[in-house]
Design goal:
Layout lengths: L3 E3 L1 H4 L6 E11 L3 E3 L2 E8 L2 E5 L2 E5 L3 E5 L4 E17 L6 H9 L5 E3 L2 H20 L4 H20 L10 H13 L7 H7 L4 H12 L3 H19 L4 H7 L5 H12 L3 H12 L1
Parallel strand pairs: 1-3
Antiparallel strand pairs: 2-8, 3-8, 4-7, 4-8, 5-6, 5-8, 7-9
């Protein structure tokens, strides 16, 4: 499958920051990233999806919620009908978005019939408000979208943040790291964004995450690289770029230090295991 990067300008109206629709899907999207957040919920038909290397069935009541740090593909088989919502981070409460990143292993969900009725009501209301653009539409759209996100978070479970008095600051930091991983944000840049000294920020970050900043960032990069190596045919060079490495040689070195194996050998071992 060919790697793609779905950009903001091609999928979301710049003025409204959100797209909401009900659509029938067939075919295969190919593996791709988004520059935005996406929710898709199946209401009829069948299909399949892959999220960060894990494959799931798509049928009535199943779906997923994705951040810019995730990659996936969608395959429609028998008249797959979906609610599709795409939005950028400016339209949603920032602390709510952090909860999505805290649930990085729980992107996929499955609703029962009663829950399907509730989420259908919310999605239909969102689509109507977004398309009709009545008075106070921006408030209505934001509130409905946040209700949908909360509904999903309650289904997949939400980890409580360990942050203390600086919880809001650290929530914003983690959200920024996840959404700008490819830009390789440095400790100094993050400290400056928070108006903290590098030393104070470094100590605060470790207190809240249990890891040094560089260790946290490297771990996030390598985990993303492992997912791409095992679930796609993207070249090692492209993977290195997507994970924020300035050179392939540096990526090879760090990957081997973290995993004990070279990237291509890691890919071969995963492919051999699946045969």
């Amino acid at each position: 499958m060919k790697y793609q990067n779905f950009t903001y300008k091609d999928h979301i109206n710049k003025e409204h920051h959100i797209s909401a629709q009900k659509k029938k899907y067939g075919g295969n999207t190919g593996i791709h990233f988004h520059e935005f957040f996406e929710i898709e919920i199946a209401i009829d038909g069948t299909g399949a999806c892959m999220i960060n290397g894990n494959e799931y069935a798509m049928k009535r009541g199943t779906g997923y919620i994705l951040t810019p740090a995730d990659f996936h593909y969608l395959s429609g088989k028998e008249n797959l009908m979906l609610y599709n919502v795409m939005f950028d981070e400016s339209i949603v409460n920032k602390q709510l978005l952090v909860k999505l990143f805290e649930n990085e292993k729980n992107r996929y969900f499955s609703f029962d019939e009663n829950e399907i009725k509730e989420i259908t009501f919310l999605c239909e209301a969102l689509i109507k408000e977004r398309n009709e653009e009545k008075e106070h539409v921006s408030f209505a759209v934001t509130n409905l979208l946040e209700l949908i996100i909360i509904f999903i978070l309650r289904k997949i479970g939400s980890n409580e943040s360990k942050n203390g008095r600086n919880s809001l600051v650290m929530n914003n930091v983690l959200r920024y790291i996840y959404t700008h991983l490819r830009e390789n944000p440095t400790l100094a840049q993050m400290a400056a964004m928070c108006n903290y000294s590098p030393n104070y920020f470094s100590r605060l970050f470790r207190e809240n995450t249990g890891k040094k900043y560089t260790d946290f960032l490297n771990s996030l990069k390598i985990n993303t690289a492992k997912r791409l190596l095992s679930s796609s045919e993207i070249s090692v060079k492209e993977i290195a770029q997507e994970c924020g490495y300035s050179s392939v040689s540096n990526f090879y070195r760090v990957f081997k230090e973290e995993t004990g194996i070279a990237p291509l050998n890691f890919r071969r071992s995963k492919n051999d295991y699946e045969k």
